[in-house]
Each structure stands twice: as C-alpha cells, then as structure tokens.
Amino acid sequence: MTEAVELESSQRSVPEFVETLKALTTEIQELYCQDQLPWIVGYSGGKDSTAILQLVWDAIAALPVEKRKKTIHVITTDTMVENPVVSAWVSRSLEQMGRVAQEQGIPIEPILLKPAVKDSFWVNLIGKGYPAPRQGFRWCTERLKIRPSDNYIREKIRESGEVILVLGTRKAESASRAALMEKHRNWRVFSHLNYNPSRPNSLIYTPIEDWRTDEVWLYLMQWQNPWGNNNKELFAMYRGATADNECPLVVDTSTPSCGSSRFGCWVCTLVSADKSMEAMIQNDEEKEWMQPLLDLRNELDVEDDLDRRDFRRRQGQIQLYERDVEGLDAKEIVNIPGPYTKQWREEWLRRVLQTQTEARQNAPIEMQGIELITVEELSEIRRIWLEEFHEFDDALPRIYSQVTGQDFIDPRPNAGSTYLGLDEWSILEEICDDPMHFELMTRLLSTERKFQTMSRRVGIIDALEKHFETSSRPKEAAIENAHRNWNIKKAAKAGDVEAVKQLTDQPAVSWADMKFKGRG
Q: What is the pTM assigned to this prediction?
C-alpha cells in the first residue's frame, strides 16, 4: 500500500502505522457490535474528521451485512458564516456520502445542522446590535456551534438513553488540547473511550487521539476515501490556505505541516486575521472573488468601536465598572458600551448586502448563488428593529432595495404592518431637539400603537414607564445619574451615612425636568 519509510525520527514507522490501523479497525468493529447505543460522528470536512469517518466507514463496511444494524449519525454544523469554499466542499461531501452509503448498505446517515435563525451571526450583530465578538464577549460560539449539535445529541439521548460521540480530536493539535485529553483519561472505560464529564449519558470515542498530523495526511492520501471524495482536493484546499503554499506530507521537526491551517467562520474577529482566507486569495486567482468578504471581516475587527455603540446596554441600563488607570496607582469608573447604534446596524446591513452582491457577480458559476445572509435572517432583523427597538421607519426593506435593486419579500405574514412609518419618523426627528427626546417619543408612540391592536391593554403603563426609565435623559445627564447611583451604593456599603444623605439630596435630572422646568 505504501513503502516502509520513517515518518519522523524515533517515531512510529509506516509498517507500525499500518498495524495500528488494523488494530483500530478491529477495535471499532468490536465497539460497534457490543451494544445498541447510537454513534454520533462529528464531521467538519477537515482532515481529522475526514480521517475518523473514513476509519469508521471502512471498519463497518468490512462487517457482514447482518451485523450492520446500528445507525451512525454523521453530524455537521453549518454556522452559516463558514468559509464559502469549505462550506461548499462539506455540502457536496454530505450529499455524496448519503448517496453512496445507501448504495453500499452502510448505516450512515449524514445530517447538516444549522443554528436557529434567532441565534445566527447576522441576526445578533445586525439585528440586536451585538458588537463583533471578542474574547471578553464571545457570544458566537455557543449560539452558532454548540447549541445545534448539543440539541441533536440531547434528542438522541432522550431516544436511546445514552450515545457514543466519535470525534477526531488529537493531542498533537495543541498543548492545551493534549492537557485536556489527558485529564479526560480519568473517565476512561475502554481503549480510546471515555465517559463525557460535561454531558451525562454520553461517551466520547477518540481513536486517532495519538496520531501526528503527518500520519493523518499519510492515511488520507494512501487509503481511498470510501464515499468517493477525492482527498487530494482536501489536501489542495489545506495547501492553498497556507501562506507559503507548501504542505509537505513527510516533515521534519523544522518544517510545519499545512495541518496548522484553520478553517472557520469568515467573519471571526476572535483571531487577529483570517490567515486561511488570505492565503486562499493569495495562492489562487480563482478565489479572488472572496476579497470583499475578507474586507468586510477586517472592517468588523475594530478594537476601539465606542463611536459605533450605544452608551447603554441593550435593555437600556447604563452599566459601570471600576478599573485600574494605566500607569497610575488609581482607579476609574467607566461606562460599559452597549449594542451598535441604529446608524451602524443599518450600515452593517448595507455592507453585508453589498458584499453578497459583489461576490455573486465575481464568483465562479458554482458559487454565484452564494447567500451571506438569508431571507429568514433579514425577516428576523426587521422584526427586531420594529418590535424591540421600536424603529417604525422600517429601514430594512428600503436598504435592501437600494443595495440589490429588488423589493424585499418578507416571508412572515403581515410583516411590517404598522400605522406609523417613515413620514411620521421624519416629522418627529425634525421637531425633537435632542436625540434622547426623539428616541423617547418614537418608543412611546410605537408602544401605544402596539397595544392599540390588543383587545385588553394590560401592561401598557408598565411598558410606557420602562421607556421613561431608559430614554428620558440626555446622554450626559444619564451617565451622570448612573455615577451618582454608583456612589450612593458605594457609600451605603461603606456605612457612610453623611455621603448617602448628601448624594440623595441631589435630585436626578430627567429630560422632562429640563424640558418643562418653570412651566405651570
């Protein structure tokens, strides 16, 4: 099958690796046949998950037909903001996988999972105004990656009582991964099989945990893909995503493998740069159409974005925190910024639609239908702007038409139906002399109109009062009032009665106080 050469000095030789494969095949078959627990294989389309699925497929295919009784669920989570080239590769792989499995009588069922619309990246960033993810506010991973697969696993546990998760995780990926996998050995119940400490009623099976990156590539290149994929295309994709465009199979300790290429979300701002997409564009002129995506990702990745964000949190509260002053032995109280402002939420929508339009115009034929943002996401963004932000100017259809030249057809019945619109919005904007005054008026009107359609108007007073709590002061007065409340709590905690009395004697000033001061 392949010649016997040393892969790496003092490491496993190729003949030894072949014997390891034989032992793993037997192990997989024994584990598969010993009970009725369903298997769930995590498949991302990358090298490690391809290797693990290929191992499982070949092992099960070698069993007699009567022993292939247990369905193997192959799950892939599409975050909807995956690198488009990788996403297309995975979609093709799943389609082919399902077809060939059925033809060969292999009980493998590929399943493509996606986040709920309310959890999608653009609904949260453009709709709710969440800022681009940072390590201190990593809101994306849970919503886009964990929830879809976790929900599926929970469903299978409810059906069967217990499941086995088959993963392609390897110790050689990183020092932190190696440490975590070593810790998990405390729950080992069988070779390469552990109880899952974070998910009751599930076990984790990691048969390639000790493989090196060059062994993964050796296996993928020398053993044929059983569902008909060309692993050389996968190799070329990794090679194209490496900055130096080199991806050696047999490496020495001074030569990095292309296994370090990391494919992920093209919008990811948790890393300093999307090096894989940059390399793809650099190494292949046929992928230059992705440059607008890379430009948009870089526009999102702005560390100091205070001018783009509201001074309040999403529910309207001003939140303060105490931090050290850099270079001084002192503390300062600062305001935690909130969501993107209306202006910037609308601006991000324009840029996403512009990027999608440009990508469709320049992409190869097979990618010209690319969707960076779906109609369902646009509909949910529109709903959030209208119902939660009370922005009854209904800007989304207008922006969509301006950028795409087409009318926006909302799939939600009666979406956008309102007595108020752009004309009323413009009149209010003209007559209000303060942004917070304008916001208060729009929210009061929108809330009153919402309750007008109800048979019972229970709760309208509470809803209106909430707007006065969050929108009744100019920005400077609102921040000053938040600092005042902070100081009152601090003084009360310290037992400083005099300070509390002095601070509470200073009345908080609202927009209404200033607007109607002195009027009878």
A: 0.86
